Amino acid sequence: MKPFDYQRATDADSAISLVSGDPEARYIGGGTNLVDHMKLGIAEPGKLVDITRLPYDSVESLPDGRVRIGATVRNSDLAAEPVIRQRYPVLAQALLSGASGQLRNLATTGGNLLQRTRCSYFQDVTTPCNKREPGSGCSALEGWNRHHAVLGASERCVATHPSDMAVALAALDADVLVEGPDGQRTVPVTELHRLPGDEPERDTVLRHGELVTAVELPSLPFASRSRYRKVRDRASFAFALVSVAAAVELVEGTITDVRIALGGLAHKPWRATEAERVLRGAPATEETFRAAADAELAAARTLRDNEFKVPMTRNTLASVLRELTRQEGS
Amino acid sequence: MRLNLTVNGRAMTADDVWEGESLLYVLRERLGLPGSKNACEQGECGSCTVYLDRVPVCACLVAAGQAQDREVGTVEGLADGEELSTVQRAFIDEGAVQCGFCTPGLLVAADDLIERVPEPSDAEIREALAGNLCRCTGYEKIMAAVRTAAERSGGTSGSGSSAGGDRT
């Protein structure tokens, strides 16, 4: 690993000036992804600015019904928060389905959002990868691409976003609060991550030096009936092949409102707006669920090894909707 | 830097520490505590699992600078002198150890589980140990050891070790 300087930030302003003034500097939170990248040679920061002791480690219920999650709240602590378990079970379930206990105890809310793809070619510095080395080519396009994207990919990159938490946040219409050298801004989590396009090296819309300080959840009362289901190769400690985050509002057998996001399918958490459009106002029937999944997956483009993701998504989405609407009606 | 931290209940200091070296390196090479093992160095295998402020983490992913003034519990802190902890004794009695490289991490993870969940189901044991890889045993003996440790702890107040600190 390349040697680097380490500085512990005591307040956000000094952290931001330390990083924004130095193109080689990076923030470090739990380190569960960045430290890996430094050991693998994917990232070689000259300076790490430790933000884990900034005052962003609490979960607050705001007077208007929103919930603000500090950026340094650990994944395991967030999953255990009573307000999250009761009002946003989809988020608690997503958090607990990610990584291992040891990693959830280190990983932060902000860091989880900003983790990078686990594409095996991205992580192997001996192979071409446009995300790691722009212009070098994409090894996954013609390579082993079972885990890769079927929605929103480009000729340059077919990587998927690995986070479970971010899929739940996308379904919940969460906002990301960001501070940078030019002040504060709010980015909807659905707009934080990018599709690869011609610049797969850019995972998010954040600029160098910008710091995630919090995530805010809207009130969304019907999210108390929500689910996260993750399909993977083994029961624990594996990334999603396909995942579904969903919340449904049901009135007398009709779906009056719904939020759905899909994981494991795209370069970003995939908000399923086409499926939502089909479902909203429709009866909660198997036919509706299948039509919703088909509408969303109409744009799917599969690769050699990942065709299975399309029927797997269709079945998983229908199953989650069945479960949510059955429970709501019972 | 001068690193100050509490390890297994004792205040410890190490000088000339590079902030960027891992907590695991500090424990093994500077503080004379080689119980925590160095294997994957990527947070995958769990052999370096220690308590950090009372929760289990992979010490290979924590920078020394991040451990300043914090409380660490290692596998060396599980036993009370020569008296093995309930989890350690159960691992021996059930034959849950073969090469032994993963054992320190598993002991800390199992100690934490029984502290949090005094009567764990098999599913809870499997999930709690998901971040600890063993390439010898096939896990069955490890499962048996954790069940035995939980039974012997009486399903009440944990395993009797104090490595994780007072979490009540």
Automatic annotation (TrEMBL), chain A:
Keywords: Oxidoreductase. Residues 1-222 form the FAD-binding PCMH-type domain. It holds the Pfam family CO_deh_flav_C. It comes from the Bacteria. GO terms for molecular function: FAD binding; oxidoreductase activity. InterPro entries: CO_DH_flav_C, CO_DH_flav_C_dom_sf, Diverse_Substr_Oxidored, FAD-bd_PCMH, FAD-bd_PCMH-like_sf, FAD-bd_PCMH_sub1, FAD-bd_PCMH_sub2, Mopterin_DH_FAD-bd. This is Xanthine dehydrogenase YagS FAD-binding subunit. It comes from Actinopolyspora xinjiangensis. The lineage of its organism: Bacteria, Bacillati, Actinomycetota, Actinomycetes, Actinopolysporales.
Automatic annotation (TrEMBL), chain B:
This is Carbon-monoxide dehydrogenase small subunit. Residues 1-78 form the 2Fe-2S ferredoxin-type domain. It comes from Actinopolyspora xinjiangensis. GO terms for molecular function: 2 iron, 2 sulfur cluster binding; metal ion binding; oxidoreductase activity. InterPro entries: 2Fe-2S-bd, 2Fe-2S-bd_dom_sf, 2Fe-2S_ferredoxin-like_sf, 2Fe-2S_ferredoxin-type, 2Fe2S_fd_BS, Beta-grasp_dom_sf, Diverse_Oxidoreductases. It holds the Pfam family Fer2_2. It comes from the Bacteria. Keywords: 2Fe-2S, Iron, Iron-sulfur, Metal-binding, Oxidoreductase.
